[in-house]
Amino acid sequence: MLSWVAALLTGILTAHLAQRWCFPYFWKDALFLMRVIRYGARLEIYKRRSQIMTVVDRFVQQAQRIPEKAFLIYEGVTYTYGELEERSNRVAHVFQDAVKKGDTVALLMSNEPDFISVWFGFCKLGCAVAFLNTNIKSRSLLHCFNCCGAKVLVVGADLLDTLEDIIPSLQEDRIAVWCMTREGSRPGVHSLLDKIENASPEPIPAERRSVRCLKTPTLYIFTSGTTGLPKAAVITHLQSLKAAGGFWAYCATGNDVIYTPLPLYHSAASLVGIGGTIELGATCVLKKKFSASQFWHDCRKHDVTIFQYIGEVCRYLCNQPMAGNEKDHRVRMGVGNGLRQDVWREFLRRFGEIRMCEIYGSTEGNLCFMNHIGKIGAVGRSNFFYKVIFKYDLVKYDLVRDEPVRDHNGFCQHVQKGETGLLLSKISSQSPFFGYAGSKQLTEKKILRDVFVKGDTYFNTGDLMAEDEDNFICFKDRVGDTFRWKGENVATTEVTEILGLVDFIEEANVYGVQVPGNEGRAGMAAVIVRPECTFDGKKLFNHVLRELPSYARPLFIRLQESMEMTSTFKQQKFALVESGFNPSSISDPLYFLDYTEKSYIPLTCSVYDSIVNGQQKV
């Protein structure tokens, strides 16, 4: 008997040691996957029920369950679940006769509690809401309305002046403009705050917001792409619910306090941040705009336990002067994306052992990775079971030809473990791709067909990734006509078109270059000056300042006599990207965007050194 027990214990110990040696992440993978499957099962039940539960339904449910609990803390003021529920009801009552179920409305607001009140108010009327990026200019704004077909615009009081040039065009298109003020400040612009304050706080009947299918669009979130102008990514109720489970998957609870300094018009703050807060029944500290100097003070003041980030946020925090109380906080977790390895390590050294949870997934994409292990430098973690549920592949990509490599049969080729490849995600009923509003052509451009067999379809993420021997997935770069800077996607075609409006520019080729110490790529443009003209740095500075948001303005200009083209007559970017912006290795004249001089100034070796050394801010 004793020998049998001893043999059993020896076997268990041997199996345990073998598991730890051969499969060190087995239990962490299993527990995480169980949570993902459990949440997915809930969504499947929703789909099969006649009464479908959406994010707004979940908010109403939480407001009934915990009406007195703090939902939002904004600029020192606390708003409970019950108060935001009543506020959104008031918004719904104001517009219940002006819009009908299925309409689309546009929202142009900075981070503030009424962003959520207006968002949820229209959702309670069965409307889809288009979130407009507060940085985009007049031409792009008009394009956004054409994409989503919105006939109502609600604008924040602080952003009304940005619409000055296009209000006549909006009125011509019969788009009703409402501003978050108590009285009208411009002809044709309706005040909204006074109407909200006089409206009923009683709920709108639930039938008005009910949906029969989780694949019904609920939001349009605009993302830059290769077309040059913003694209309206279709966000369905299903996608919203999936995003709302992000914090929960990382074991957050209703006792957590979540700090959100990211803009609500992006999916990270709205879908993951606000949606995730609601799912947990937690509290969100909403910041109007990220401030590195106030970040830790805010965290200590409000007992923050989780914060949302993009890579730039963590870098800015690491660049702050060191303080004696840097580890004096309750923050235990950060959830976000784009965190560089060097910044990650420095962040942990400076501010303590905070669990950094990377999430990978584009707004419109049908695939998500989550680094639940916390390995530095990885955007996600995969395993056998994950690959069964989520069909994705890494394929060989030709950077020079800017397209996937195909074999003699016309099919894509898998990369080896550790090799960089283009990330593709299979489109299926379980992982649908809903595309972009207003353009089948844009949607089609993101789809690759006949990838491995005839008839299959994959979503092209546009991202180059590598998967190592331990199944950790690392982001390498972006391909095509889009690069990322300051946490925003920059469409090179849009910037090229804007530069083309300058009278002395004959042709422009826009691309991104790496700047040491910075995430993403900074904008650079190779420019041909018209023969009869000369380069005018002040005129170009004024033009980009007026026409482009700060993150999209080219920091560097390279004057060329001719443009190198591909065999298919596309502008060649690969060699330009590789050559960077070092004046000692580039014979062409180079210029730098200098806000102090209010001009593009010659990029000398001393200016270059100051940029590389971090003395000159970019």
Automatic annotation (TrEMBL):
Enzyme Commission number(s) of this protein: 6.2.1.3
Domain AMP-binding enzyme C-terminal: 494-570
Signal peptide extent: 1-18
The AMP-dependent synthetase/ligase domain, residue ranges: 60-380
GO terms for MF: long-chain fatty acid transmembrane transporter activity; long-chain fatty acid-CoA ligase activity; nucleotide binding
GO biological process: long-chain fatty acid import into cell
Localization of this protein: Cell membrane
One GO term describing the cellular component: plasma membrane
Main location: membrane
Membrane topology according to the record: Multi-pass membrane protein
Database matches in PANTHER family: LONG-CHAIN FATTY ACID TRANSPORT PROTEIN, LONG-CHAIN FATTY ACID TRANSPORT PROTEIN 6
Family of this protein: Belongs to the ATP-dependent AMP-binding enzyme family.
Record's protein name: long-chain-fatty-acid--CoA ligase
Organism: Labeo rohita (Indian major carp)
